[in-house]
Amino acid sequence: MSDTIKTDVLIIGAGPVGLFAVFELGLLDIKAHLVDILDKVGGQCAELYPEKPIYDIPGIPLITGHGLTEALMRQIKPFGPTFHLGEMVTAIENIGDPLFRVTTDAGKTFECKAVVIAAGGGSFQPKRPPIPGIEPYEEKSVFYAVRKIENFRGKRLLVVGGGDSALDWTLNLQPIAKRLTLVHRRDDFRGAPDSVNKMRALVAAGAMDLKIGQVSGLEGADGVLTAASIKGKDAVEHVECDAMLPFFGLTMKLGPVADWGLEMDDELIKVNTGTFETNKVGLFAIGDINTYTGKLKLILSGFHEAALMAQKAHHYVHPDKRLVFQYTTSSTSLQKKLGVA
Fold this sequence. Notes:
The chain is built from seven helices and 23 strands. The chain is of the alpha/beta class. The chain has two domains: 5-125 and 251-337, 3-Layer(bba) Sandwich (FAD/NAD(P)-binding domain), CATH 3.50.50; 135-248, FAD/NAD(P)-binding domain (3-Layer(bba) Sandwich), CATH 3.50.50. Helix 1 (16-27) runs parallel beside helix 3 (65-76) and helix 4 (164-173) packs across helix 5 (193-204). The two termini are 42 Å apart. 36% of the residues are buried.
């Protein structure tokens, strides 16, 4: 296991609310690391509707999910947050008053004075394909995410799917794979046209294979994949492979949050509306993951919650430092932090 990473606050979730929390914490001299299960920042805005217009961000008549994410990243740049993407928090342990030890599925360990859960509706979890007997192969030779590209070097790979993720990883893995086969249920792809064209060029050049059909079965003992059955329109074909990467999209699940001893209401975390602290001292929940009387699931509500959370987090991170409320419009010290003074 790697050395423990120490920070003031760990934010779980790098969606708009988690990103804005970096800003509010930064104004109070609080450093933050962020962990997100996705391989990019932006949460639902980036993953589910990057091009969908958003009309209710105060002062911005129209902005896309991608545009909002980019704007927030520019806003928090002065505070130098550190991102740990493609990872899921698996455990939170209270080791002080308050002091937390947080671990992820990538083997990282953090120690921090406060934890902020800004996980939206929960963790994005990959959808499992409807293949009989797939469970024993998962995380041994069937993978729903690419943690380290080098793990697939020299292997016979089967990539399944027709969206951007399947096409992107097809193009990224093809140069290092012994042989790569892309499987999709129809000869029509949802991904970016440029990626589709590059994939078809590789197929035409004989550098990879494209099979139209669906994976109907897996072969191999003890979770070690040796081949897959692909059911096409007229026949079933066997393709030898060492690993399979199915990209069937993502679904929202509460995930490990449900096991952290938090007071819940219908799979949402109950909070104190003055601080957005949970029933655990030093552990906060902001954005769509929380619930309280009058809660509105709006990004602007999450921004408000982040501001109040930061005020209380300051008490834990800087217990001996008096908190003086200041406005960015008039405070030269805040403007220096933002690099605009």
